[in-house]
Amino acid sequence: MKTKHLIKLGAFGISTVLFSRKKAILGTIILTDKCNLHCKHCSVNNLTAVMHPYAQIKKEMEVLYNQGIRILFFCGGETFLWNGEEKNTHPSTQSKITDGLREPCHNKTLRDLVIEAKKMGFYIVNVVTNGTFKIDLPEADLILLSLDGDRERHNIIRGDTYDTIMKNIDEATSDNICFYMAINKINRDCIKHVCEVAKNKPMVRAVSFNFHTPYPDTVELELNVEEKQHCCDEIGKLIDQDYPIFNLKTAFPYIVHNNFPTPCYQCVVMENGKLSICGRCIDVPGLCEKCGYFFAAEYTLLFSGKIKIAVDMLNTYLRYI
Asked: Which CATH class is domain 21-320?
């Protein structure tokens, strides 16, 4: 991260705390809910399977940027499935005439979106993926790749994808990968395994943990308070042992008991033109009180003026971004 961007983010944080502002700094754009997997813990895949067009995504990026968003995530569904191909297949829409020659039109890809976001002025541009596609996106600051345990537990949750993901990581073109693990009843004993994999893979910078957020159709995967405490104790010990973990230990007591402020007004999600505060789950009654997203807790605590959280976040961001 550039020093000038860090200073501006710091100024945003200070002014937010001093004046109790609710202005957002982090935005997520849902490119599509189409996904090649049907994971046990996911409630938002393949509801429409629509690929939102490039012009729409670009407009949404502009809207977020003009609102002051400077940290941008692209999310799905599966982001690497997204393309900006037009639905109209008439030959005149598939090519253009240049100096008398027919030149193919360029179908927009995820890389085009990341490059456009950087050009637009976003400080940090991250991508979320399930890791089953070739990982060739050095332009992204972080590629948050879902790994949900050891081979056995991951495959129970996500299908037979573990070996494919490991191969794609080994063949990745940049070291900007961060594992993204949702801890649930199935994989709660795999925390150290995922950290070991991250530590031993040159292309992986860190692991970012969340707890499973129990949508109505996945409540059986929810952890209780004692299980959450056990997990956070383990993660905390691994942080002390210098495992690469992209979470804030100082936030764990709040996360375990879900006693952090919700929703997170500093985060927004844009999906098909609809802007939601914090996340897509905000419209589900009672779900905020069971939020498992570590980053949401970290951001709300930061902007509530928790000094220890601020110091912890600064050190963590400087290390991994």
From this structure: alpha beta
